[in-house]
Specification:
Layout (H helix, E strand, L loop, with lengths): L7 H136 L3 H18 L1
Membrane topology: Single-pass membrane protein
GO molecular function: proton-transporting ATP synthase activity, rotational mechanism; proton-transporting ATPase activity, rotational mechanism
InterPro entries: ATP_synth_B-like_membr_sf (IPR028987), ATP_synth_b/b'su_bac/chlpt (IPR002146), ATP_synth_F0_bsu_bac (IPR005864), ATP_synthase_B_chain (IPR050059)
């Protein structure tokens, strides 16, 4: 039962040993232990700050990436729109050029047809004139086969000419 009811001397010595232990601990162990705890706490706080900063940086990078994607999509759409406009312009120009060439070919063909027609008409007129002259020559030779018929024809022609004057 001595342990349950301690005596004054035991209590006194235990208190002194406890105080010496606290003094020794305070002098030699608490500073390094508190320093280590403070260092650990500081490193944890730094790690948390770094994590927060990294999270913010990741959010900024994500926002930048989304912005870059939007810009890239807008650029792509602009390039595709420009390509469509260029395609339509080229098709329109090609169609207009083809139409102009076709019109020029048709006009040239019509001109060629007109010239060929005129040439054919001229040739036909010359041929008809030549045939007419031949026929007239044959008719006149037949009618003017005698001298008397020739004199009558000359008189008639002179009469026609004098009435015209």
């Amino acid at each position: 039962m001595d342990l349950i009811t301690p005596e004054f001397g035991l209590f006194f010595w235990q208190t002194i040993v406890f105080l010496v232990l606290i003094f020794v601990m305070a002098k030699f162990a608490w500073k390094p232990i508190l320093g280590a705890v403070n260092n650990r706490e500081q490193s944890i706080n730094d790690a948390l700050a770094s994590a927060v900063e990294a999270r913010k940086e990741m959010q900024n990078l994500k926002a930048d990436n989304e912005q870059l994607l939007k810009e890239a999509r807008a650029d792509r759409d602009a390039i595709l729109k420009e390509a469509r406009e260029i395609k339509e312009k080229i098709i329109t120009e090609a169609t207009e050029d083809a139409q102009k060439k076709a019109d020029r070919i048709v006009a040239q063909a019509q001109e060629n047809i007109k010239l060929e027609k005129q040439a054919a008409m001229t040739e036909l007129k010359n041929h008809v004139a030549a045939l007419s002259i031949e026929i007239a020559e044959k008719v006149i030779r037949k009618e003017l086969s005698s001298d008397e018929k020739q004199h009558q024809m000359i008189d008639k022609m002179l009469g026609d000419v004098s009435t015209l004057n």
